[in-house]
What we know:
- Chain A is of the alpha/beta class and 266 residues long.
- Chain A is built from eight helices and ten strands.
- In chain A, strand 4 and strand 5 form a beta hairpin.
- Chain A is globular, with a radius of gyration of 19 Å.
- Chain B has helices spanning 42-49, 93-98, 104-108, 129-142, 159-175, 187-193; strands spanning 2-9, 19-26, 31-35, 57-62, 76-79, 147-151, 179-183, 196-199.
- With 209 residues, chain B is of the alpha/beta class.
- Chain B has a single domain (2-205), classed as Rossmann fold (3-Layer(aba) Sandwich), CATH 3.40.50.300.
- Chain B is globular and about 45 Å long.
- Helix content of chain B is 27%, strand content 22%.
- Chain B: It comes from Blastococcus haudaquaticus.
- Chain B: Belongs to the ABC transporter superfamily.
Amino acid sequence: MSALLEVRGLEVDFVQYERGLRRRSVPALTGMDLTASPGEVVALVGASGAGKSLLAHAVLGLLPPNAVECGTVTYDGVPRDPAARRRLAGRETMLLPQSVSFLDPVNPVGRQVRRSARLAGRSDPRRAAEEALAQRGLGPEVLRLYPHELSGGMARRVMVAMATLRAPRLLLADEPTTGLPPETVRTTLAEFRQLADDGCAVVVVTHELLAVLDVADRVVICSAGRTVDVADPADFTGDGSRLGHPFSRALWQALPVNGLHVSGVS
Amino acid sequence: MLQAQDVWFRYGARRPWVLEAVDLAVAPGEVVGLCGPSGGGKSTAGRLLAGLLPPARGRVTVDGATPRPRRTPHPVQLVLQHPERAMDPRWTLRQVLAATGAGPGAVAALDPELVAPGWLDRYPHEISGGELQRVNLARALLARPRYLVADELTASLDAVTQARIWHLLLDRCRAASIGVLAIAHDRPLLEVVADRVVDWDRPADTRPA
């Protein structure tokens, strides 16, 4: 099957003004490659600040106006510019955002989930909202709460519910499991696996390498704004000697279950 | 000993209890892990221990007394998951660190492993999240605390950065006999870094052995 999403050599610079009119260009991505096909879960892992979230936002055309892009993003066989990608966002492509701050702080959760249900074309938004939350172990009382009253894990489950109300063709999940207990991590990831098995292409940006290995078809590793390695989940085993790139090995060995080792990679 | 004795707390008189009869103790130099489901009140307990919230019933004591710092930093410092939300975005990191009351000399003399000298004149958004978390940790340590509460200290960081930050924290806390309460949902992490792990499935049954 051909790839639904194909990112080749994506570079992003941010233009900033220093004092007065002096401009400077800050490179953020320096060469990202990523492909995702229908039916596939791709894990995107790497150092914090490597640009994983930025890549997800770039794919959806959600970067701020001072971002300068270079490289190609092909979706469904056609190269798309940021404006075209922005038009697809929320319809065919969906972002599951990282932080609670993506929820509207002055509206109760219920109103926001019902809005998502309405936008997803559900006939009975009220019921759909309640069911979507109940599916994730959140009772109807959560609908009346404001985002600041949710714990981190509850907010994340609310956002998963909102993003999956409409079955997207491409789902980019940005750190969907941070702050969740292991049980919920497994069910959330299993849900992504199910979405992929139903024909969606899923990209999961995550730090939780260990948990994502169970569901991922491929692991893309990035560091300092570029893709450094693409690995088979089965290669993450033992002391990591089957991993090609030193950074992939360092990432594997630094996991708490592997002893929290700090190797020489900076 | 940092101690919570029979602590109760709720966010309003008509709201359900978040903490019910919680007992928790951290000895000097000890690292205690606190693990449990989300929404179980772990972060609330951290705020109570650090003196940011008063308990409705029960008491929190530091070495036997209720701390009432006036012009000095609180003896229990809280380090949160999101350093960018714990700093004034319009202050340089030098100003952020100086806010602890440490003199310019102490800020400049910080261990470069923790805070590289080149960061001091930058703003919080100009260094990466992992680097900023190191500054956040350095700020808490500059306040010369007797105890640290690390609430999901490295939950949003990659494994390599996570390992590095925990090694830095443990080295310094062991050297200065600082007691640490490490709050995290990542049980394998706590098993590596903590001397003992408290599980909060049932908050009422957490009396330490």
